[in-house]
Amino acid sequence: MSVLQKPETHFPPPWQLKGEGIILLYRFPKKWINDHPLIPQYLKGEFKGGFGYLMLVNYYDSPVGPYKELLLIPGKFKPENRQSISHIIVNSESSTQNGRYNWGIPKITLPIIWESEKGLDTIGVGEEDEPLFFCKISHKGIAFPVSTKILPLKLHQQWNRRSFHTEPRGSGWGKLAKIESLKINAKRFPDISQFKPLFGVKVSPFSIEFPAPSSITELQ
Q: What one GO molecular function would you report for this record (predicted)?
């Protein structure tokens, strides 16, 4: 039996969260994912394809208070045929500890800045003298409904010798979004700047529920 450290202040699922976010949709090459040195070991050689997502999220309301987030879902992986969050950074240590414990999400805590003006978001992740990620994303047009019913999330995560299955559900209103600039420290985060997104959307506002995992399995 593995021992997973319960956060000092535990906020159990389900979580109801509200905020704004940017979703960039990709199809990453199989070889690039399978060979990438930053992809977690349990996903090595297991990439099946499907849509990949880069998400930037500004939560106004959550059980642990407001926080910001950058995450990468490369696509689906065998044998579960589910998506996995390979990288995720938040600017809340409480979110990090609870995310690991509740759902096996591999969060790390770093500073994140998010500045908004009309039609443009500027987001920086990491220390000021050594940023991990920096982007400018523009958005415009008529708002349209966005939902996990259209692009469902079925997550499989491994953390501390446990396997978690979780299916978040969310919806909101989106406008078309486009990368204006993007810089990534390739030593610390997979450099997806070499790939062009298939689609981009700024979702504001949105709400999402992270339920309790449908299963938690002890790994040998």
A: lyase activity
| C-alpha to C-alpha distance for 11 and 98, rounded to whole angstroms | 7
219 with 162: CB under 8 angstroms? Answer: yes
Query: In the numeric block, which tokens belong to residue 134?
Result: 């920096």
**Could you report the per-residue pLDDT of 85-130, keeping only the tens digit for each?**
999 999 999 999 999 999 999 999 999 999 999 999 999 999 988 8
Retrieve residue 81's tokens: 């045929």
Q: How many Å is the maximal CA-CA distance in the chain?
A: 52
| Cα(96)–Cα(34) distance, integer angstroms | 26
**In terms of C-beta density within 10 A (0-12 exposed, 13-18 middle, 19 or more buried), how is residue 72 classed?**
buried
Asked whether the bond before 14 is cis by omega within 30 degrees of 0, the reply is yes
**Burial of residue 50, with CB atoms counted within 10 A of its CB: 0-12 exposed, 13-18 middle, 19 or more buried:** middle
Q: Distance between CA 101 and CA 28 in Å, rounded?
A: 29
Residue 167 structure tokens: 């299916």
Strands 112-117 and 120-127: antiparallel
